[in-house]
Design goal:
Number of helices of chain B: 25
Strand content of chain B: under 5%
Shape of chain A: globular
Number of helices of chain A: 22
Structural class of chain A: mainly alpha
Strand order of the largest sheet of chain B: 1-2
Order of helices and strands of chain A: HHEEHHHHHHHHHHHHHHHHHHHH
Oligomer: heterodimer
Low-confidence stretches of chain B: 31-35, 506-519
Shape of chain B: elongated
Strand order of the largest sheet of chain A: 1-2
Largest interface: A-B, 62 and 52 residues
Radius of gyration of chain A: 22 Å
Mean pLDDT of chain B: 85
Strand content of chain A: under 5%
Low-confidence stretches of chain A: none
Helix content of chain B: over 70%
Mean pLDDT of chain A: 88
Distance between the termini of chain B: 94 Å
């Protein structure tokens, strides 16, 4: 077993065994710390995946595959059903793998300090680690069936997190609200999963293989199969991403989930959808993607505009941030819909940036709600008078989220617009103009948020706040703040590794 | 990388580092706003050091620069599009950089005195001095980035960071209820313009395959692309440089502390739009359509700003509207094809407008109000401030030999050339428009400048209880230092080193250089110079005559029924509110309702429907025994029948 194969296994095995260990340790705090250590080790393994990367050699063969993993592990799993345990990592998946490992670590660390009311801390940490296994597996799987399985692993633990630790209290109405939100999340995304399963088996049955490396490029699939497969897969991933109008599970789930749950949901769970769209839907059925691209583009821009407009009328802090994800993911999907190297690169960096920034925003929203005991914008005001640091961080995150050039959010959004201009033609130019207008609307609702929450005289809920921040909070937020700045100044941190695989992918799209 | 380009690259880095470090400083304890406070002292040191360092670098750059220089490296590649990280330096860039750094230094020093808790103040003005100083440093860094940037995306970074810094600084004053709204308006209005700016950059970058300015200028764009990109870029410029119809944010931005007004109005922010136009001049020189639009925009802006300035009572708002009007002169110079004239006016304006704001801040500090109706007679109690303001207003109105006279004369001469001789790339009617608007503007400017001077410094004091006096050294010296260029910078326009620097251009846009300005100087006196001088005398004389009749009354009463219209700037704010803000808000509300009722309603409806269907089926199955038996028997019968039928058929 080479180092690369070992690391691939470790990235999945460490959090899995970590979850088991956490569940086995009877005492609460040591269990949480053990879980955090497991998450930290996972991050180390994920980072180490980029060391000693190979996979470029195949580029010199006669017909290089469009997916050239740095490391791959391919063993028979269920020979009777011809299932293979095929993992691999390349420049498209690696940034997301690292982001997942990082956010899980931050969430586990945060849970060491504060456990949301509702359940035991160690159960929460164990569930977070199980979610991590599912997400990482999704990003690493190079076999369609395996991809589907990991895709599903995430669902139930997340359901449990929302039901167990979410909401704003213990009164029956709050309990019912979070149950309802969790049920909607589970059923809605399960509906997407059914389509994914059908799509996967359409592809597998037609091509006779489930190997993503072999399937990418759509060779061996007829046009009709590709159109059908792309439609099924795209709708499935659109639910997860989410793409308007399939988004309505998101605001409820994000609002009701506990802080760490929201961070993972917005930070990486949504990325399973966009990653799947790039790797599976577009990769396996490129002809279908070309056929459906205008529809996808129009829906993406609708998501940007409608998401921003709804945010302008939101009255609750977490719900506003949740809805902002609809708009931001709209930019990512617009980038994918252009099917150009520029657009897909923009989508990748947009994915990572959204994970960093919205993760930070949810952490901050959670901190504000924990302190002020309310998330209603009407009842929040004057935060900068009583808690200047928290208010400053919120301003930073909001400014990053509105896509200020120089911070991480800019690249994905600006270059999704540039990519649409690059495609040209009346439709795409119109989409570019509308998306750019959506950028202005994004600024409008985030500034409205800042004006209500940070400026003015302190409201009753805010007046009694202590100005200080806990060490655990700073430790959880500082990496995100630094990354938002670092990715903004040096986008090559994310895109440096992605350029080659994206070019290879776009070549098969031609 | 040569020494020159290294200096250029360091130029934004120095204040950036000062700003980022400054943001990490702890906010001072509330109420402890004295000089003994270490956080405040560190913030002052960082802020002043950052601006001073930038000034030293800018001067060094100006001295060492011996021709256009360029250096760049790849920043990131998006598909086939290259984004570079690099600097593009020429004489104009170096001069603007010096102006930016000098004004920033003056503002940093002045702020130390201005945002201090006085012995008699009962409010704590500045326990947030560290973030304030850091934001000024970031602001300076962003503007310097725009100045030296060699890439459109990099320029956009500086462009927008400047916007957010202005947002933060305008909202600084916590006791001013209108400050947060003004800040939000400033950012959003400019951001709307930036939608066009981004799209224009995208068009140019996609067309050229690179965002490097040199590549974009060298590439042969199609006429359609060029016109579209030019018009889109103008939207961004209109936002930043407060051109009609995106000028509405600038007067409201007065809610920021006065030093911030000086910074925004003089060398940064509003200057950025004009500067970027000169930077990308070859593209605009090739698109008469964009220039015509620019000319109309500039003419409207000149008159709108000047007329609105006549009826304001707030001293800062007079100055704010005068900035709008003066920016119109700069864009007007560009519309008639003379970037050097625009840059010359930009530089002199930077000096005299910064001077005017700093002096106005002193007056406001001394009198305790910004309303001119409560000032008057300050000439004797505040002689230094009086002379500073006099120089500033003289330069603003264009009194020879102060700086504004020469630079405005350059603009008017260029417009005259375009109107009478058809010089430059723009159509002759644009020349006429800009020229006439400029001439009318001269008279109106003289009128409101005279009014401001008389209302503030002459006549009898209208608030006798205060005892105004000239400011302490920290507030005095930045103004005095700025008075020198405000008075004398115009003379530098005569043939010589300065004029050569301003007219030096990078090789790739050599063909775009206007021949309106002879290469030997920015100033050429012709008999037509008497025209603006006569108008100047007319405007000033009318204001003086009106004031003479009743020294306590406002000369603005002469405006009669137009006064409220001018005071509210033709109610364009209301138009903006009615046409943009309210519809957008209403649309947001409608979108929210539709999203919750229709989109989500369909989902929950499906859920309820499925539940009801299941319930119905369950009820059917929960039948009493007789009916159940009957159903079972009926089923059995049906199956038997079917079996029998199938048996018979086969």
């Amino acid at each position: 077993m080479s180092l690369g194969e070992f690391l691939l296994v470790a990235v999945l095995a460490v959090p899995a065994f970590g979850a088991l260990a956490v569940a086995a340790i009877p005492r609460d705090l040591p269990a949480r710390v053990a879980g955090t250590v497991a998450a930290a080790l996972t991050l180390v393994a994920a980072l180490a995946l980029a060391v000693d990367r190979s996979g470029t050699w195949t580029a010199y063969s006669a017909t290089p595959p469009a997916v050239r993993p740095w490391h791959a592990l391919d063993v028979a799993w269920v020979p009777g059903l011809d299932l293979r345990f095929h993992l691999g990592v390349d420049g498209i998946s690696w940034p997301l793998v690292v982001l997942t490992a990082l956010l899980t670590l931050l969430c586990c660390g945060y849970t060491c300090w504060r456990v949301p009311a509702g359940g035991s801390g160690r159960a929460l940490v164990a569930l977070l680690l199980v979610v991590e296994v599912g997400i990482l597996g999704t990003f690493l799987a190079l076999d369609l069936v395996l991809f589907f399985l990991f895709f599903e692993v995430v669902l139930l633990p997340m359901y449990a997190i929302i039901v167990g630790w979410g909401g704003d209290g213990t009164d029956p109405a709050a309990v019912a609200a979070r149950r309802r939100a969790a049920r909607k999340f589970a059923l809605y995304t399960l509906f997407g999963s059914v389509l994914l399963l059908v799509g996967v088996y359409v592809v597998v049955a037609a091509a006779g293989t489930a190997d993503i490396v072999a399937l990418t490029g759509g060779t061996g699939l007829s046009r009709g199969t590709q159109l059908a497969a792309f439609t099924l897969l795209a709708v499935a991933f659109a639910v997860k991403s989410p793409l308007w109008p399939l988004h309505s599970w998101l605001p409820d789930a994000h609002t009701q989930a506990p802080t760490v749950g929201s961070v993972l949901l917005a930070g990486v769970l949504l990325k399973m959808g966009t990653y799947g769209l790039i790797r599976v839907a577009v990769g396996v059925a490129p002809e279908g993607a070309r056929w459906a691209a205008p529809v996808l583009g129009v829906l993406a821009v609708a998501a940007i505009l409608i998401g921003s407009l709804v945010c302008l009328a939101q009255t609750e802090l977490k719900r506003l941030i949740a809805y902002s994800s609809v708009g931001h993911m709209g930019f990512v999907l617009l980038g994918i819909a252009t099917l150009t190297a520029t657009g897909i690169q923009a989508a990748l960096i947009g994915n990572v940036a959204h994970g960093i920034i919205t993760g930070l925003l949810f952490f901050l929203a959670g901190a504000i709600k924990d302190r002020a005991h309310t998330g209603a914008l009407r009842e929040l005001s004057g935060l900068r008078e009583t808690a200047p640091r928290l208010s400053g961080l919120l301003a930073f995150a909001a400014v990053a989220s509105l896509g200020l050039p120089g911070l991480a959010g800019f690249w994905g959004e600006a270059f999704a617009v540039v990519a649409a201009v690059e495609v040209g033609g009346t439709l795409w130019i119109t989409l570019a103009v509308l998306a750019a207008l959506g950028g202005a609307l994004t600024a409008a609702y985030l500034l409205r948020l800042l004006r209500q929450v940070t400026h003015g005289r302190p409201s009753a809920a805010v007046a009694g706040l202590k100005p200080g921040l806990a060490g655990a909070e700073l430790a959880a937020w500082a990496p995100l703040v630094l990354l938002a700045l670092a990715v903004g100044l040096a986008p090559t941190l994310v895109l440096g590794v992605a350029e080659a695989p994206v070019t290879a992918l776009v070549e098969v799209l031609r | 990388m040569s020494t020159t380009t290294l200096l250029g690259a360091l130029l934004p880095v120095v204040p950036l580092v000062a700003g980022l470090v400054g943001l990490l400083l702890p906010p001072a304890a509330r109420g402890a706003a004295t000089d003994r406070d270490t956080a405040r002292r560190a913030a002052i040191a960082l802020g002043v050091a950052g601006a001073a360092g930038a000034l030293v670098l800018a001067v060094a750059l100006l001295v060492t620069l011996d021709g256009p220089a360029e250096s760049s490296a790849t920043w990131i590649r998006f598909g086939e599009l290259t984004v570079t990280l690099g600097v593009r330096l020429d004489g104009a860039a170096a001069l603007v950089a010096v102006a930016v750094a000098a004004v920033a230094l003056a503002v940093q020093v002045y702020s130390v005195g201005y945002l201090r808790r006085g012995p008699h103040d009962d409010v704590d003005v500045d326990h947030r001095y560290p973030p304030y100083a850091a934001q000024i440093s970031l602001f300076t860094a962003a503007m310097l980035l725009v100045v030296v940037s060699g890439d459109l995306i990099m320029l956009l970074v500086g462009w927008e960071v400047m916007g957010i810094c202005s947002y933060l600084l305008i909202a600084h004053d916590r006791w001013l209820p209108q400050a947060p709204a003004a800040a939000q308006k400033a950012f959003l209005v400019t951001r709307v313009g930036d939608v066009g700016f981004l799209l224009g950059i995208a068009l140019l970058g996609v067309s050229a395959g690179s965002f490097r300015i040199a590549d974009v200028l060298a590439h042969d764009h199609g006429t359609g692309t060029l016109t579209a990109a030019g018009l889109l870029l103008l939207a961004g410029v209109a936002g930043k440089s407060a051109q009609f119809p995106l000028h509405t944010w600038l007067p409201d931005a007065m809610a920021g502390p006065t030093p911030i007004s000086a910074l925004i109005h003089a060398a940064t922010m509003v200057a950025a739009g004009v500067y970027v136009l000169t930077r990308l001049w070859p593209l605009f020189a090739a698109t008469p359509t964009a220039l015509a639009v620019l000319g109309v925009m500039a003419s409207v802006t000149v008159l709108l700003g000047a007329l609105a300035a006549t009826a304001q009572d707030d001293i800062k708002r007079v100055l704010a509207w005068s900035t709008v009007s003066q920016l119109g002169y700069m864009t007007g110079a560009l519309a008639v094809g003379s970037p050097p004239a625009a840059l010359f006016h930009l530089l002199t304006h930077a000096a005299f407008k910064a001077l005017l704001f700093l002096a106005a801040g002193v007056v406001i500090h001394a009198v305790g109000t910004a309303a001119m109706s409560r000032m008057g007679g300050l000439r004797h109690s505040m002689p230094v401030t009086f002379w500073c303001t006099l120089i500033g207003l003289g330069a603003l109105a264009g009194v020879p030999p102060l700086s504004g006279f020469w630079s405005k004369e350059g603009v008017l001469a260029a417009a005259e050339g375009a109107a009478l001789h058809g010089d430059g790339p723009a159509p002759a009617w644009v020349g006429w428009l800009v020229w006439l608007a400029g001439l009318v503007g001269v008279a109106v400017t003289a009128w409101y400048a005279t009014r401001l001077l008389l209302r503030t410094f002459f006549g009898a004091p209208r608030t006798p209880l205060t005892h105004p006096h000239d400011p302490p050294a920290l507030l005095r010296w930045p103004g005095l230092a700025l008075a020198v260029p405000a008075a004398l910078l115009g003379l530098a326009g005569f043939p010589g080193w300065f004029a050569t620097q301003l007219q030096s251009t990078t090789p790739s846009d050599a063909e775009g250089v206007s021949d309106l300005m002879p290469p030997d100087g920015l100033i050429h006196l012709t008999p037509t110079v008497l025209l603006p001088l006569a108008l100047l005398l007319l405007g000033a004389g009318l204001a003086w005559a009106g004031w003479r009749r009743d020294t306590a009354a406002d000369p603005a009463v002469a405006l009669g029924p137009l006064r409220p219209v001018f005071a509210r700037a033709f109610r364009l704010d209301d138009v903006q509110q009615a046409l943009v803000v309210r519809p957008t808000t209403a649309l947001g509300k409608a979108a929210r309702v539709a999203d919750e009722r229709v989109v989500d309603g369909a989902v929950t409806g499906t859920g309820h429907g499925a539940g009801a269907l299941g319930g119905g089926l369950a009820t059917l199955h929960r039948a009493a025994l007789p009916r159940a038996v009957a159903a079972v028997l009926a089923g059995a019968l049906l199956i038997a029948l079917a079996a029998a039928l199938i048996g018979v058929m086969s």
